[in-house]
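User: Sequence in, structure out. Go.
Assistant: Echoing your sequence, followed by the structure tokens.
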Amino acid sequence: QATMTTPSLFVYVALLAIALGVSADTADICSKSTTGISDDELAVTCYSGNFLTKMLGELNQGQNKTAEHVRVHLLPYLGGNMTLAALQMDSPDNPTCTVCYTDKDTSVGLTSLRNSLNPEQLTAYDSLGVCYARLTEAIMRALPKSPCGVWLRATPEVTPYDQVLAMMKGIFAEAVNPSLCPQ
């Protein structure tokens, strides 16, 4: 059985969007009709895509970002209210820490980004009990990186929407379920 590599999947999704007449510049990562994703997978795509389309847009506009910088912001965002609150007081000295650092400004910024979604979108994501550490790692594996692995690599030829859509479809294809939690 042949499998698509990530870059060819990005191209496939971009071409599919063009063929369907979806404008990637205005496509809504939270829309069932533009993504072709439904239910639990849409909830995860919408929530994570809210962060990722913003970040990938910044990257494609020339803002350099290390993979580690993105990971330490993505993990507390994907963990939801619990990990966003942990940013207010967590410490690597605590062996049961969840984000393992304290940054109140990051907590405020990521909470604001989270709250840019509507209550139904937040409830749909939160109700899944997503294994946010697994989702973070899956996303980080899928993001394009420099040969040394330190820097994220811009891919301006593919819109952030198309990148996120391809990435999430690839993650779901390998996952046991949309929450990425073991059964």
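User: And one key feature?
Assistant: Confidence is low (pLDDT under 50) at residues 1-26.
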